[in-house]
Amino acid sequence: MNKTIITIVAVAIIAAGGYFLLRSAYQPAPPVSQLPSQQPTAQPLTNTVTYTDSGFSPSALTIKKGGTVTFKNESSKTMWTASAIHPTHTLYPATGGCISSAFDACKGIQPGDSWPFKFDIAGTWKYHNHLNPGDTGTIIVE
Does the pTM exceed 0.90? Predict the structure, then answer.
């Protein structure tokens, strides 16, 4: 009988130990409301390039195809954003602007005003201020 009691106690200890071991290893999944979002964060379709008396900032900007860049004039003078190459504005291939390319504000943008342009063609597109051609920048469309 002593042997039977010792066997029952040993089995109970092993069972209890196994239960606690398995319980600590098993972690139930958190409720769905506590899971981090699996959806990718959307990239903004609107981006801003600022023109100051020092030129365009940022001087290079990478965006997604179909994104819009707003060229904001925060300088003390008028700016006219246009596709390179000065003075023909032919680098951006979509036609329809006032000189050659659709990527052309076609007029001076006064200080405090802005001009948006939607980039529908992937590539690297250089641009300049038509009124001060030494001020340049690049838009990279992926």
Answer: no
